[in-house]
Amino acid sequence: MREENETKKRLIESARAEFFENGYLKASLRKICANAGVTTGALYFFFRDKEDLFGAIVEPPLGELKELLVTHFNSEREQLSHSKTYSHTSGDHNDLSAMLVHHIYINYSSFVLLLTKSQGSRYENCVDEMVDMVEKNYLVVAENMLQATPKKHINTYMLHWLAHMIIDAFIHLLTHEQNEGKALLIISRIMDSLVDSWMELVLED
Predict the structure, then answer these.
(1) Fold assignment, 1-47
(2) Tens-digit pLDDT profile for residues 162-196
(3) What pLDDT was estimated at residue 110?
(4) In which element (H, E) is residue 64 found?
(5) Cα end-to-end distance, the chain, whole Å
């Protein structure tokens, strides 16, 4: 069992390097196996195909990121359901920012692969899927806010735009800033700015 685990680990690390160098479409399974020191038969013992191998690298951190966001949105909706008012002060989302940034940066190479090397795989639309997930949760949050501001209505276009903005902000950080500490300082300010704009942009008279 230990030997099998070591073989699988070598295959994943070899695949990570190959996907980074050539992207998903041009990555060579033969080269991955050669660099891992195993036969192609060994690869198919652990993985169904190239996409399954790529998924073994990117799916775990992506799935965990989605779970973190779902937990946050569920908590936010629960708080709003028991409140008749909504207010925001600077730093309210610092804990969320720190949690997301830390998760992304400890899985830095996997997320860079997702963003820059996944074309041709089932993960190539992962950004759109994340925006859709955030937008749906934003809508539920906005509907809860309407209970405290019944004379307003939801601007769905701006809600969609804000969902894009927050995902795009994290993407820009990941592809332009390799230092986790600096990334956290930047995203914390961006989060404050976006949340401050919420009432004005999403809930209109």
Answers:
(1) Arc Repressor Mutant, subunit A (1.10.10)
(2) 999 999 999 998 999 999 999 999 999 998 888 88
(3) 96
(4) helix 50-81
(5) 63
Locate the DSSP E strands across the chain: 153-154, 203-204
Q: Which of 26, 32, 31 is nearest to 57 (CA)?
A: 32
Indicate the domain borders of the chain.
1-47, 58-204
Cα-based distances in Å from 33 to 21, 42, 60, 105, 110: 15, 8, 22, 28, 20
DSSP character at residue 48: S
The answer, as to whether pTM is greater than 0.85, is yes
Residues in the chain: 205
Whole-angstrom distance, CA of residue 187 vs CA of residue 205: 29
- Calpha distance 89→5 (Å, rounded): 48
| Mean pLDDT, residues 96-100 taken together | 91
**Helix (H/G/I), strand (E/B), else coil: 148:** coil
Is-contact 14 54, C-beta < 8 A? no
Tell me if 160 sits within 8 A of 135, measured CB to CB: yes
